Amino acid sequence: MADLQRRRNEELARILHQLGWSPERLAREVSLALPPGLAISSTAPYKWRDRGMVPRSPHDQTVCEVLSRTLGMAVTYEQLWGRMGGHRGAKILSPRLLTDPWTADNAQTALREAATDAGPVRLTDLFRSADLDHAAERLSSPPPPVGGGEGALRVDPSLAGELGLSYRSKQRLERSCGGGLVLGPVRAELAMLAKLLELGAYDERLGRELYGTASRLARLAGWAAYDLGHDAAAQRAFVAALRAAHVSGDPRLGVAGLGALVVLATQGTGGRGLDAVTALRTALDAHGPALSPAGRARQLGRIARAHGRRGEAEQAEAAAARAFAELDGVPGTEEARADLAGMVGEGRLALGQHRMAKGLLAEAVAGLGPGRARAKAMLMVRLAEAHRCLGDQREAARTVGLARALAAGMQSERLARALRDFEAAGRAAAR
Q1: Which of 56, 140, 212, 269 shows its CA 20 to 30 Å from the CA of 161?
Q2: What are the pLDDT digits (tens) for 200-226?
Q3: What is the DSSP track for 85-143?
Q4: Tens digits of per-residue pLDDT, 221-279?
Q5: Residue 18: helix, strand or coil by DSSP?
Q6: How far apart are CA 229 and CA 359, in angstroms?
Q7: Residue 408 in 3-state DSSP?
Q8: pTM of the model
Q9: DSSP 8-state class, residue 358
Q10: Residue ranges of the domains in the chain?
Q11: 408, 177 in Cβ contact below 8 A?
Q12: How many CB atoms lie within 10 A of CB 222?
C-alpha cells in the first residue's frame, strides 16, 4: 500500500514551473516524441507530478529527453524519477567507454548495451574530446584477436551475407520513412547478432565479418535513435559501432562511426562540449585512401557543416572545397554530390550566407531521389529558411508546404521538430 501513497514529485514540478509548462503541455510534447501508438493521455503527467507515479519505458526516458532538449541541459532519470521508488535507477554509461581496453569482449558488451531499449540513459557529456581523439588513434592500431568463436552454435558462413542484406533493407527504410519505423527491429537484430558473437562457433575471417555487420547495425540503430531525438541512446550505439569496427579490422567502418559522432556532437544535444571534428580529421588523414571518393566527400562535408555551425567560415570553406574536389570527374556520384551540397548548404545557412546556402540547398533537393526522402524533406525546410531570410516569404511558404507533404507519415521526430520550429519562427516574426 505504501506505493499507493501520494508523493509529489518536486523536481518535475520545479522543471515544469521553470518552463512555464502545464502537465497537458508536457503530455503533448512527450506524445510528439514517441512513435504512433505510444502517445500518452493528457492527464498522465498530473499523476507523475502530484502522485509520484513513475511512467514505464519508453515514456520515462522520453520525458527526460524532451525536458533535456527544451532546457538545453541534462535532465537525468535519477534526477527525475530516482526518488520516486521502484528501484529503477538510471543506467549510467561508463565514461571509460572509449578508453577501456579495445578488446572483442568489450565490443560485445557495447553491442549488447546498444541493442537494449529497456534502461534509461543519462543524457550528459559522456566523453572528453581527448578520449575521442584516443579512440580515433586506436583505429590505426592492429585489431584485437576475435573473442569467442568457440561456442556450441555453429555459424553458417553464408549468414554474414544474409545479415548484410537485412541491414541494407532497413537502412533504406530508415532513410525514406524515418527512424521510428526501424529502431525496434534493428535493435532486435543487433541483440541477436551480439548473442551469436558470444555463443557461436566461427573462425577468425567469419568473426571479423560478423563484427563488421554488427558495426553497421549499431550505427543504423544510432541513426534511428538520433532521428527520434534520443541522443544519448544514439551516442551509445555509435560508440558500439566504433568498437565493433575496430575488431572487424575495417577502418572504413571506424571512420563512418566517427562521422556519425560528428553529426551528433554538432547537431544534437548528446555531444555538447564534444569536439568530434578533430578525431574525424585524424581518422581521415590515416585511412582516407581506403575510402571511396564518395565516402571521403561525405565525411569532409560533415566537417564543413560542423565548422559552419560553429561559426568558423574559413575552415568550413576549406573543407567544402576538398569535399567537392573528391567528386570532380568521378562518374556515378550525382546523389553523393547532392548530399554534399545539402551539408555544405546547411553550414552556409548557419554562417548567415543565405544566398549561397539557397543555391546549394536547391541543388541538394533537386538531386536527392525518393530513397532519401527524409533527408530531402529536411533540406526543404532549410531551403525554406533561406528563402525567408532573403525576404521571399511566398517561396518559403511554398517550399515548406512541399516539405510537409513529403514528411507526411514519416516517423522522424527530428523532421517534425524542424517543421514545428519553422512555423513557430514564422508566427513570432508576424507578431
Answers
A1: 140
A2: 889 999 999 999 999 999 999 999 999
A3: STT---BPPPTTTTTS---HHHHHHHHHHHH--SS-B--S--S-HHHHHHHHHHTTSPP
A4: 999 999 988 887 888 899 899 999 999 999 999 999 989 988 887 775 544 445 678 88
A5: helix
A6: 29
A7: coil
A8: 0.77
A9: H
A10: 2-84, 91-288
A11: no
A12: 31
